[in-house]
Amino acid sequence: MLRVMGVDPGLTRCGLSMIEGGTGRQVTALDVDVVRTPSDAPLHRRLLTISDTVEYWMDTHKPDVVAVERVFSQQNVSTVMGTAQAGGVVALAAAKRDIDVHFHTPSEVKAAVTGNGRADKAQVTEMVTRILALQQKPTPADAADALALAICHCWRAPMIARMAQAEAMAAEQKKRYQAKLKAAR
User: Fold this and answer.
1) Does residue 8 have an active-site annotation?
2) Is 69 a catalytic residue?
3) pLDDT in tens, 45-88
4) DSSP H or E segment with residue 49
5) Which of 93, 115, 102, 142 is nearest to 4 (CA)?
6) Would you tell me the crossing angle of helices 106-114 and 121-131 to the nearest 10 degrees?
7) Cα-Cα end-to-end distance for the chain
8) Catalytically annotated residue among 52, 69, 98, 145
9) E strand spans, the chain
10) Catalytic residue flag (residue 145)
11) Is 36 helix (H, G, I), strand (E, B) or coil?
12) pTM of the predicted model, to two decimals?
């Protein structure tokens, strides 16, 4: 079983989820919540609220890995900055606990969950509800997005592990080949 904490970072609303993935595409929702901070609060206080909540979640749920939405460039620079700062707080909390962090783009998450990298929020929410066999749709959208991130990582984790193993083998072969060339000189 792989326990994944999914995080949809944001300053005003930061979606948090915890799921377990079994064999194949079997996933089970364990918890979901949204951390809210007032927009008129000082930035450092908002980040502290997110940090405290994320650390509580990590200490309580003990995830094996954290999946965070990768910030991409939007028109609104202040929104991107806040999202990146919230994501950084999450990554730091995980690093302090020696928990791996993986970043996934919104289109990777949408493609994994819906089959369409350009799916809208309603489609993502609908598929998350179906995949996890939830009685009702998770709200707000940040909660559904956090669940989608965790699902995406559960389903991509075996491929990520195989890629890392292949890269390590290639690096070792390159090292042996270079040593062989050096010895031949």
Assistant:
1) yes
2) yes
3) 999 999 999 999 999 999 999 999 998 766 678 788 889 999 99
4) helix 43-61
5) 102
6) 50
7) 50
8) 69
9) 2-8, 13-21, 27-36, 65-69, 100-104
10) no
11) strand
12) 0.88
